[in-house]
Task: structure prediction
Amino acid sequence: MAKIDVINQEGKVVSSLELNDAVFGIEPNQQALFDALKMQLAGRRQGTASTKGRSEVSGGGRKPYRQKGTGRARQGSIRATQFRGGGTVFGATPRNYSYRINKKVRRLALKSALSEKVAETALSVLDKFEVAEPKTKTFVSIMEAIQAPKKTLFVVGQNEDVQNAYLSSRNVPDCTMMRSDLINVFDLVHANKIVMTSAAVKEVEEALA
Result:
């Protein structure tokens, strides 16, 4: 098992932690990562694009001219698709783009994303958050001490009291904080660095190992 240093809010090493190789040390599966990302991005689509067919466009109730004798092609409505102001053929309609992939593939994608961050030394472990009051300045100073760059993802344990830390982080651009049970492939891949608390690491290992 690989060992990683556990730091405090001042950036000082206070202990070490063994990472489970079954979660943080596998060979990243790029296909699983791709499938999971594609699924997440598809689920984010609004699917509200809408067009009107010829039956939905207003007007065109009467026949524009008589059937025979004009020399022109017969027409039943000026709202047919070939006319200006007519309906759209096979146009977009509101739909749900979301779909699901296999649970094993989702788990493999999460482990691949975490292992990739460990291999890139883009994962740090924090002992705990201790923020006395919600203050952005305090949180920014913590980020500077632990050398957290822009686009940092903070992962905390489900039972940790991090309300003040969460409120303090909301005004920091490109900074995200979430519980360990809410981690997903998009946020893991999108972040330049991941900072997890010791409790979060244990919970992730229990869930994915």
